[in-house]
Design a protein that fits this description.
Helix content: 25-40%
CATH topology: Rossmann fold
Radius of gyration: 17 Å
CATH architecture: 3-Layer(aba) Sandwich
Number of helices: 9
Oligomer: single chain
Shape: globular
Mean pLDDT: 91
Strand content: 5-15%
Number of strands: 6
CATH superfamily: HUPs
Distance between the termini: 31 Å
Largest sheet: 6 strands, parallel
CATH class: Alpha Beta
Amino acid sequence: MLSKPIGLLGGTFDPIHIGHLRPAIEAQQALSLAEIRLIPNHIPPHRANPRCSSEQRLAMVRLAATENPGFVVDERELAKNSPSYTIETLMALREELPDTPLCFLMGMDSLLGLSGWHRWQELLDYAHLVVSCRPGWQPDYPAPVTELLAHHQTRDAEALHLRLAGHIWLADNLPIDLSATALRNLLAKGQDPRYLLPASVAHYIDQQGLYRTDAKIPLASPAQPGRK
């Protein structure tokens, strides 16, 4: 018998905010997930180095997790000195949790660009894909995604409990038009970020003086080419 599925949400979380958390909360409730694992990465393969250090981002993710029942932090990608590829993380989790369905949470923008991800054809061998809608992203799917949906999409939430992997579930969630870039720009101007991220995270950012125009940018290993 399979265990209850768990949700997986990866990212730089620079900083973590409601655009990350609210879709995850809705997926947790809609799919009856046992937990949501927040997986911050150290070297993102698909974008520039984060503004804050791995230690600072981990501290913010931990604070966010404590405010949300059923949320936990998985630090495995922070321990890597190489780019964090989703397929490698899913393979490691599958080995650790052989009887637990894995639900990898992503936005519609990520689904549309899935064919650019590292070993993307193998993702559904290890997890279900749970896709949240994003403002401004219409579902005009490229051919590879159209084919994936034709073979793997389900509207039945219970189906994700009955198989370890292989389904794509499109969420009907409340779209939140907020990016970490926009939030960092707001913080750099000294504006109040209230209600855009957890209060404890906002307090940590203020206490540490993060994202201010006079804040020092930490040194980090150079990002490597490639995709998630």
